[in-house]
Amino acid sequence: MSPRVPAAELDSVFGLLANELRIEILRTLWAQHPESLSFSDLRSSVDIRDSGKFNYHLDVLVPKFVRKSDGEYLLTHAGRQVIGAAVSRTLTDADDVTVEDVPAGECMFCSGSLMARYENGVATVDCAACDDLITRMPIPPNTVANIDAEALPEVFSKHLLTVTHQLSRGFCKLCYGQVDASLTVFSSVESVTHCSPLDVQFECRECGDQTHLNAGGVVMDHPAVTSLLFDAGIDLRRVYIWELTSLLDPEVTTVSEDPLQLHLTIHLNGETLDLTLDDTATVIAYDRR
Q1: Where are the domains of the chain?
Q2: Contact 281/252 with Cβ under 8 angstroms?
Q3: What is the pLDDT of residues 185-213, one digit of tens each?
Q4: Which CATH number applies to 7-87?
Q5: Contacts of 102 by beta carbon, 8 Å cutoff, 6+ apart
Q6: pTM for this entry
Q7: Which residues, 6+ apart, have CB-to-CB distance to 10 below 8 Å?
Q8: Plot region of 16 (φ>0 → left; ψ -120 to 50 → alpha; else → beta)
Q9: Containing H/E element for 288?
Q10: pLDDT at residue 56 in the model
Q11: 3-state DSSP call for residue 81?
Q12: How many angstroms separate the CA atoms of 148 and 192, rounded?
């Protein structure tokens, strides 16, 4: 894993944005993206008469947030990320968007009623009957700000599916850096999953973000699993992920501790799928019968 970004470097990066004129420059280029703007067109759009002042603040943004090419200016990826974060309201309105409890399906543990809610930038699904936490994950406020409350479970499930696929394919959900996956059983890492052998931790090599997922969810997009679900008439886009009990609560046994290997047995509609996972939660063998 890469060393954490030093505080001084973070101060330097955020300091580049601590000016209204610089933010306006970024917003103007965002509105123009993917087209570029010349110096004169950009200054005219920002509507500032002092060319020297404008030139100074524009130069501060180059090259980290703005790229200059052949006399034209356009946003870098980092520049688009900054404006995207503002558009998503992640940095501004997380406390202002709230969705009270709405029905979210059936509990995999007690068959009680699940409830979903959104507050402080986090979506949660838990059971009203047994009080078990089913899943919890941050979601950008703009993802839920303009939906009907009843649609929250569906939106959350699709978001959870997206994040799961992103992590299982090796990309951080925050910075898109590479992540390392590891089964936490037999380690000092505290399990978050209801069944500790199924706990998988993803850690970003760049930003250090850590996320825990159920191994059954991690293997969801493996061809052997997707074909089993498809043949059972299950479309992951149209169900609540947390209701896939056969996938999220399979039979699990330890094949070996060194090297660490787990064996999962999934029963669905009269069929059985056996999966063998290595210590990175990668499927190394499977058998459907």
Answers
A1: 7-87, 90-150, 169-289
A2: no
A3: 999 999 999 999 999 999 999 889 999 99
A4: 1.10.10.10
A5: 115, 116, 117, 149, 150, 152, 153
A6: 0.81
A7: none
A8: alpha
A9: strand 283-288
A10: 94
A11: helix
A12: 30
User: What angle do the packed helices 77-87 and 20-32 form, to 10 degrees?
Assistant: 100
pLDDT at 93: 60
Show the tokens assigned to 55: 């030139």
What whole-number distance in Å separates Cα of residue 124 and Cα of residue 122?
A: 6
**What are 120's two structure tokens?**
């402080």
Tokens describing residue 22:
């610089």
Give the C-alpha separation, 62 to 16, whole Å. 10
Residues 6+ positions from 197 with CB-CB distance below 8 Å: 183, 185, 215, 252, 254, 262
Please provide the DSSP assignment of 86-101 as one string. Answer: HHTTTTT-TTT--EEE
CATH architecture of the domain with residue range 90-150: Single Sheet (2.20)
Place of tokens 């997922």: 213
In the numeric block, which tokens belong to residue 2? 């890469």
Residues of the chain with pLDDT under 70: 1-11, 87-95
